[in-house]
Design goal:
- This protein has one domain: Substrate Binding Domain Of Dnak, Chain:A, Domain 2 (Up-down Bundle), CATH 1.20.1270.
- With 127 residues, the chain is an all-alpha fold.
Amino acid sequence: MRTAHTITLLLALGLTTGAAAAVVDCDNAASTVDINECAARDQKAVEVKLNTAYQAALKSLGDGEGAATKKALVLAQRAWIKFREADCKALYELWSGGTMRDMVFLNCMRRRAEQRIKELDEFENPH
């Protein structure tokens, strides 16, 4: 779990260092470095949306009647974070011998976050 955080941090640091020298056109990215940079940008943007959705879900539950649900959601979110990191790390390991491993990891993190955002929206708008 800590490894996934380290991988993400190293990717972000490594990719943004080169990004300062040149702006990457993600619509036409062709090199592995550029593709990874674009994947890192996409993943970072969805993390912001994920945090916003999580905070909104917590806020919608309030402190009164929703306190038990709020507590359960916090525990579920923590478990989900561990699951996502382990799941995406497994994909990273699967691709560890190739240049696609960073993109695969970042895309996994992004896809899982996009799905979680939909799930969190249910707390604000129960059906």
